[in-house]
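Sharing a chain and its predicted structure for anyone who wants a worked example. Both blocks are below, sequence first, tokens second.
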Amino acid sequence: MCNSLPVKRYVPYLLFFFFVATLFSCVKKPTYPSEPVIEYKDMIRYGNSANPDSIEIVLSFTDNEGDIGLEPTDTNTFKTGNLCMVYYYWDAASGKWLPYDRTPPLPPFDTLKFFYRVPVILPPEDKSEPAKGLIFAKQSPFLKAHNRIKYEIFMYDVAKHKSNVVETPAFDF
């Protein structure tokens, strides 16, 4: 004689499985703007906190196409990098934030900018997928020229869409 379980016993499990499968099939992938969106998260000091030997700026990002990273061999799109950090210092005499530009007696040069090559976030076959994550931009060695600084930061994706511009809070050293 064959012992078989009644079908009624499996009905609740089948209904539950069907409900879960339906629920997950309705989940839509997130959509973000085509332009990268960045947000300042943190600044990490390495070495002595009052006089660090290097710092790392942490940013979060979203990008609808997921194309923010550069291959190490890609030197045509952005020669110096696709993430730019502009250095500002607090000038107590004028009461303003000023871009660092080496005043006389040294010859002046353009505002001090640090460029970083953001590494590839998604493999090439997934470049059409939305992406979000964190970027760690390390400045090493960190040269402390002023006691109070901040950065203005923006980036470009591979399609040359410019992100929003964010400012870090003031850092006191």
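Comments welcome. Strands lie at 37-47, 52-63, 83-91, 96-99, 113-116, 131-139, 148-155, 166-167, 171-172.
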